[in-house]
TrEMBL record:
The lineage of its organism: Archaea, Promethearchaeati, Candidatus Heimdallarchaeota, Candidatus Heimdallarchaeia (ex Rinke et al. 2021) (nom. nud.), Candidatus Heimdallarchaeales. It comes from Candidatus Heimdallarchaeum endolithica. GO terms for molecular function: acid phosphatase activity. Keywords: Signal. Gene3D superfamilies: 3.60.21.10. This is Metallophosphoesterase. The keyword Signal applies. InterPro entries: Calcineurin-like_PHP, Metallo-depent_PP-like, PAPs-like. Residues 206-441 form the Calcineurin-like phosphoesterase domain.
Length: 601
């Protein structure tokens, strides 16, 4: 086997040498490519967590005045498909962006992190909506899960709460105690809401890509130095904007989940970068569960310096699985699926053998898995009334853009994903594919599938040449670059109509009325006008009756049976919006999907 040099990461995008390297690497023959062993990451053993019973007991939240150090670094995750099962992941401050509190709670073994041991305790207190205490549960330290990648993160504690009530608001507080039972740090009183995972309920999701936690950050100690610690400012701004505008963009419904399409971390193997991720995103992820997708930067492992060629000697999923505990609906890797309301959501590891170690090309185990998932989804729609009507796929590769990675050819991971996945998506008419990698915004259509690139959330923009939009093989509905493209998507999924009960109908009617009221008040915040549409509909901005008719026709009439895609930038502007209808066809006759297909550019 010919030994190949590993491709340097995206930080070198402006380097001519780097671009040349990509071109050379993409043109290599299959026999000369880097061959990597696919990883099989063990499941997080949920049976190790203590049993939990929920009953009223004495106890009130500890006042902030009595907590020496506020530590709001919490993530809610969903390791099972049960909507009321919640995993809480706490990062005790390791001293990179604040005080080094981990050493007071954990006896850290720097040489062998998995052998670190807790010397204090961390307690999770759960309260009902009346703020009456109903459970007190100890966290388990990461070292309790030997053999799982989470044991490599000594600052992590985990707590699993199964079988909570549906559609319920809960409050909680986490407190860390030393080995002499003295309070070291803790959170203030946080909250979250469970939901009923029913196809007859409307759902709202918030989605972002290329968060790149740690990029541009400065730490007190670690891989990046500075006089004053600081976060990734773009990621901090993103999470603040999501929090501030949640009720406006979701019409007081709130987001059911936070979805990503890769590059959550600038370099997955550095604890400092994860510290930045927790610090920036906790105000969102401490109340909204996250469903992540793996990207090339999540694969980086080892080396020296931040996000450089020298920091990627090895590719592994261990860092990703040490912090993210996903529903393992397949026994391998970082690809998985879950159903939320009236939509089936699939997350793929599209990095291939260039950036990662899991192939997505024709015939690979991941390709066969997604083909099976789509075939079963369409088959079950005829047999099961509960089967979702919509399907969206999250991946990282720039499968269809006019950006640099979307224009690569040959055997680059983006080109391989394009040739193997687009024919599959077209055959089964999935509604939406969301991705990143190219740091820009673009929405396009191929057959009945919408392809949305939302790759600019936490790092620097990568601009493209305007003339490229005129020489593509597909339809571009909207594109944007630079700071105007920095933002996130809000995705609305309509409920099924046929079996809604009276309460569900009443709540849906209330949502419709709230949408109508807000859209009439500020139409530009919910409907994107092209220049042609502005000229055609200029009267609606001065005539309230015409505006109401416009809102009823363009928005309200579609909320019952269309997905609603919106993309907002951090300037508070609506960059794009569209409605995506459900697809109907005869999918029983699909015998064989062409793979590889033609490269659409």
């Amino acid at each position: 086997m010919v030994k190949q040099e590993i491709i340097p990461p995206e930080d070198k995008i402006d380097s001519w040498v780097y671009r040349q390297k990509i071109t050379e690497y993409s043109s290599l023959k299959e026999s000369a490519r880097r061959i990597t062993q696919e990883e099989n990451i063990p499941l997080l053993d949920l049976s190790l967590f203590p049993a939990v019973s929920y009953e009223e007991m004495e106890g009130e939240p500890i006042s902030e005045k009595d907590i020496p150090y506020l530590l709001n670094k919490v993530m809610i995750q969903k390791p099972t498909l049960e909507p009321t099962d919640h995993l809480f992941v706490l990062a005790v401050d390791y001293g990179y962006l604040g005080k080094n509190l981990a050493k007071k709670v954990v006896l850290i073994n720097k040489k062998y992190p998995s052998q670190s041991k807790p010397k204090g305790k961390v307690i999770f207190s759960l309260y009902n909506e009346k703020k009456v205490k109903i459970a007190e549960v100890p966290f388990l330290h990461s070292s309790s899960f030997q053999g799982h990648p989470v044991s490599l993160a000594p600052q992590i504690f985990l707590c699993f709460l199964p079988k909570l009530k549906e559609n319920q608001v809960y409050f909680y507080q986490i407190v860390c105690y030393s080995d002499i039972n003295r309070i070291i740090c803790g959170t203030d009183l946080l909250s979250f809401k469970t939901y009923k995972n029913s196809p007859y309920e409307p759902f709202f999701f918030v989605a972002a890509s290329d968060l790149h936690a740690g990029a541009g950050a400065k730490f007190k100690r670690g891989r990046v130095w500075g006089l004053f610690p600081r976060n990734n400012k773009h990621l901090k701004e993103l999470m603040n904007d999501i929090t501030e505008n949640e009720n406006i963009y979701s019409f007081n419904h709130g987001y059911n989940a936070f979805l990503t399409s890769g590059d959550n971390i600038d370099n997955g193997s550095y604890h400092e970068y994860w510290e930045d991720f927790f610090d920036c995103s906790s105000k969102v992820l401490s109340r909204i569960p996250i469903y992540p997708t793996i990207g090339n930067h999540d694969y980086l492992f080892g080396g020296i310096f931040r996000g450089t060629y020298l920091s990627c000697w090895k590719k592994t999923q261990k860092s990703f699985h040490s912090l993210f505990h996903i529903p393992r609906t397949n026994p391998h890797g970082a690809f998985y699926t879950h159903m939320n309301g009236n939509v089936k959501i699939i997350h793929l590891d599209s990095m291939g053998l260039n950036w990662g170690n899991e192939s997505i090309y024709c015939g690979s185990r991941q390709y066969e898995w997604i083909k099976y998932q789509l075939r079963e989804w369409r088959k079950n729609q005829k047999k099961n009334d509960e089967e979702p009507e919509f399907c969206m796929v999250f991946l990282h590769s720039a499968i269809l853009t006019i950006g640099y990675f979307g224009r690569t050819q040959g055997k680059s991971s983006d080109a391989l994903a394009n040739r193997s996945l687009i024919p599959l998506f077209s055959s089964y008419d999935i509604n939406l594919a969301v991705f990143g990698h190219d740091h820009m915004y673009q929405r396009s259509e191929v057959d009945k599938t919408h392809y949305c690139c939302i790759g600019l959330s936490g790092k620097t923009p990568i601009n493209y040449f305007d003339f490229l939009r005129n020489i593509v093989d597909y339809k571009i509905d909207r594109d944007e670059e630079g700071e105007k493209a920095r933002g996130y998507a809000v995705i609305y999924i309509p409920p099924k109509e046929n079996k809604k009960n009276e309460e569900q109908r009443r709540e849906f009617d209330m949502l419709i009325e709230e949408v109508r009221k807000r859209a009439v008040k500020n139409i530009k915040l919910y409907y994107y006008f092209t220049k042609k549409e502005k000229r055609k509909n200029k009267e609606i901005f001065t005539d309230q009756d015409k505006l109401r008719s416009f809102v009823n026709e363009k928005i309200i009439s579609k909320l019952k049976d269309h997905m609603w895609w919106r993309f907002y930038n951090l300037k508070g502007e609506l960059v794009d919006s569209c409605f995506i209808q459900k697809t109907i066809g005869n999918y029983d006759e699909i015998d064989k999907v062409e793979c590889p297909g033609e490269h659409i550019r």
